[in-house]
């Protein structure tokens, strides 16, 4: 890498780009629609992709090793691992819900969720603690449209 390398400048420009500009870059670099994740996710994935295209991606042996490690974690169930990755918000995301005039904030963690300093495995458990009744936690926190269920 030389001092005239445009890659560091492109990476720095991601921080000042608007979200619309980031999404346009996503379409150009990935040839697909950007996912509905937060700005930080878009920036990090775009930064990786820019470097990957400029300097090359992972070696095939590294990819095979990562795939083997992933199979150990999810039992080889590719559908299950993809579904969780696509539906679970990124760790650190804050979910905010107002219920009966009180604002509730839940933080997504690597293991599940945290509310009032206590870990939870599901949003439904938190919704039940808040309301006293059974709720689909994804619906309660606005992460899933009720009418989409069939």
UniProtKB/TrEMBL annotation:
Superkingdom of origin: Bacteria
Source organism per UniProt: Rhodovulum strictum
InterPro entries: DUF2924
Name under which the protein is recorded: DUF2924 domain-containing protein
Pfam families, sorted: DUF2924
């Amino acid at each position: 890498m030389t001092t005239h390398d445009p890659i560091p400048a492109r990476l720095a420009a991601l921080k000042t780009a608007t979200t619309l500009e980031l999404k346009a870059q996503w379409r150009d670099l990935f040839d697909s629609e950007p996912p509905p994740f937060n700005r930080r996710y878009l920036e990090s994935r775009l930064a990786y992709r820019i470097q990957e295209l400029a300097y090359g991606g992972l070696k095939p042996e590294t990819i095979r090793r990562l795939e083997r490690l992933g199979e150990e974690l999810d039992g080889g169930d590719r559908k299950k691992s993809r579904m969780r990755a696509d539906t679970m918000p990124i760790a650190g995301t804050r979910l905010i819900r107002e219920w009966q005039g009180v604002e509730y904030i839940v933080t997504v963690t690597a293991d599940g969720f945290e509310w009032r300093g206590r870990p939870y495995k599901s949003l439904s458990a938190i919704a039940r603690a808040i309301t006293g009744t059974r709720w689909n936690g994804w619906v309660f926190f606005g992460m899933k449209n009720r009418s989409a269920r069939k």
